[in-house]
Amino acid sequence: MSRFFKVNPAFLFAFLAGATTLAGSQVPFFSDQSTLLSFPALHLLESNFRSFLLPEALDTGHPPLSALYLAVWWKLWGVSLTVTHLALFPVVAGAAYYFFRICREFLDDKGLLIALSLYLLQPTILAHSVSPGTEPFLWLFALGSWWYMYRQQWTGMTIMSALLLLTNLRGLVLLGA
Questions:
Q1: Taking burial as the number of CB atoms within 10 A of a residue's CB, which of 9, 84, 123, 154 is the most buried?
Q2: Which among 81, 68, 73 is positioned nearest to 134, based on CA atoms?
Q3: How far is it, in rounded angstroms, from Cα 39 to Cα 23?
Q4: Which residues neighbour 108 within 8 Å (Cβ) at sequence distance 6 or greater?
Q5: 123-130 and 9-23 are packed helices; what angle lies between their axes, rounded to 10 degrees?
Q6: Is the CB of residue 104 less than 8 Å from the CB of residue 77?
Q7: Rounded to two decimals, what is the model's pTM?
Q8: 175: in domain
C-alpha cells in the first residue's frame, strides 16, 4: 500500500515547476511572444494546418515548432489564454524534470535541495514560466539533449537537438554550447 503512494521526487519537482505556469494563467502574450508564438499559431489554426510555411507578414525567420504545438492545443481545446498556459505546463514540467535528473547526477542531497530551490525561485525562470513564449521550449530541449548526451543515448540526444533547432533560432546557439 505504501508503495502506491510513493512519489518520484523528479516528478514532484517537475509538477511544482510546471504549476508556476498555472499560477500565472492570466498573464497575456506581449512583445515578441505574440510575433513568435501567438500570431503564427493562430495562422496555422485558421489555415487548418494546410501549410507550415508562414506568410511573409508573419514570418520572423524562426522555425514554427512551438507555434505548431500551441496551434494543436488550440485546435483540441479552443483558443484561450487558459489553454495556452495549460499547453505550457508539460513543457515547463519537462524542463524541470531534466534539470532534476542532471543535478541528481552531480550533487549530493544537500546540493540537490539547494539547486532545486534556486531553480524554483530564480526570477528569470519564474517570469518565463508564467509568460507564454518560446523560452520554456528552449529549456526543455536543451536540458533534454544535454541529459541524453551525458547518458550517451545518442538517439534521444539527436531528437532533442533537432527539436531545439526547430523551436527558435536561439536553439542553434544553445546547441553549439
A1: 84
A2: 68
A3: 24
A4: none
A5: 60
A6: no
A7: 0.84
A8: no
Residue 142 lies in a domain: no
- Which of 170, 172, 106, 176 has the alpha carbon at shortest distance from 133? 170
Alpha carbons 69 and 167: distance in angstroms, whole number:
10
Residues 6+ apart with CB under 8 A from 49: 68, 71, 75
Number of domains in the chain: 1
The average pLDDT across 127-140 equals: 86
- The answer to whether 162 touches 65, Cβ cutoff 8 Å, is no
| Neighbouring residues of 172: CB distance < 8 A, sequence distance ≥ 6 | 165
Cα–Cα separations (whole angstroms), residue 4 to 13, 14, 97: 18, 19, 21
> 37 and 134 in contact (C-beta within 8 Å)?
yes
Cβ pair 87, 129 in contact under 8 A: no
Is residue 57 assigned to a domain? yes
pLDDT at 7 over 80: no
What pLDDT does residue 162 have?
Answer: 94
Q: Is residue 48 assigned to a domain?
A: yes
Q: Which amino acid is at 91?
A: V
